[in-house]
Amino acid sequence: MDQSRLCLLALHFIPGVGDRLARQLISYCGSAENVFKTPKGKLLKIPGIGSTTAESILTHRPFELAETELRKAEKEKVSIRFYQDKEYPSRLKNIPDAPSLLYCKGSINFENPKAVAIVGTRKSTPYGKECIEQLIAQLVPHNALIISGLAYGIDIQAHKQSVKHSLQTIGVMGSGIDIIYPAAHAETAKGMQAHGGLVTENIFGTKPDAHNFPARNRIIAGLCDVLVVVEAAEKGGALITADLANSYNKDVFAFPGNIGASHSEGCNNLIKSNKAHLLTTVKDLEYIMNWDLASKPVQKKEAFSLEGFESDEQLVLKVLLEKNPTMLDEISWKTNLSVSQLASLLLGLEFKGIVQSLPGKQYKLVHR
Fold first, then answer.
1. Are 224 and 149 in contact (CB under 8 A)?
2. CA quadruple 201, 202, 207, 210: dihedral positive or negative?
3. What is the DSSP letter of 125?
4. Cα 266–261–239 angle (5° rounding)?
5. 361 and which of 27, 141, 328, 329 could share a cystine (Cβ 3.0–4.6 Å)?
6. How many Å apart are CA 132 and CA 51, to the nearest integer?
7. Three-class SS of residue 196?
8. pLDDT (tens digit, 9 = 90+) per residue, 335-347?
9. CATH code 1.10.150.20 for 3-75
10. Does the domain spanning 311-365 belong to CATH 1.10.10.10?
11. How many CB atoms lie within 10 A of CB 55?
């Protein structure tokens, strides 16, 4: 059993340690393995770590739970992708509150060049279903990846139409990967795995409790390039997902609906308040996203030379070349350098005019 992966998973079984605190621990300690080797006194100096959490870290219980979890994953043919893995979805890495791990089941290509999330009300109407049928059919030439939440109404229609047209589709769950919710969609979920699959951040056995779904929505928004709202009431999960997508600088589209119809208020308000583009056919989406220009050659940028930089500086610059700008914590995870080491390196690169610090502990490569 891979010790480094076991340690990464064990972090998620420490009571009171969520995604952000887990990343902070890795940043301060240098790696997940070092977290469990760090003395209690030093752990207590890390922001957010109290005496109870420090003691929990130093017990063997998180490892026992992680070992059991890995065995379950192997038995159920579920892959666990950590934030540090190359296989972790690149689009999701770009959001500030990305989950530190994902449970994935099926044959999923997260790096499909065109990713469209479709969300809406659980109480869909024939009009909403017709919008989905037409949109999915029109997306076939683009071979788009379709993402939704496996819920009643708009979500399940998006998945079913994707399967019908052999488009890859991902269902993002608010439960453990072993608990299909609602159970009525188990057959569709099974069919999706042949050309797509299921994704969740929750451990095995997690029940579909209400508080899991707002968190699930950020993954839907983070995995896509385009979010389409088909039908939505004045308030609801679809509008929360639309707000998240806008905050992640994703393009949001909405189908207009009848004035006064409760299931259209959300979509109409999004369009009216300029929070979503008006969508009537796939041509609207193609125009805004420049998908109809995809065949045009892209001019290559002149390569950035790493010559003349120290080895640790090169590690940092390679991260910024892959993703610019990048959060401090992410640089730390990818380089295996501690936050204190990075502070000195980044300051030196700033003095050289190579790197610029941005709000929110982000750093940008100036000369590319």
1. no
2. negative
3. -
4. 10
5. 328
6. 52
7. strand
8. 888 888 888 899 8
9. yes
10. yes
11. 11
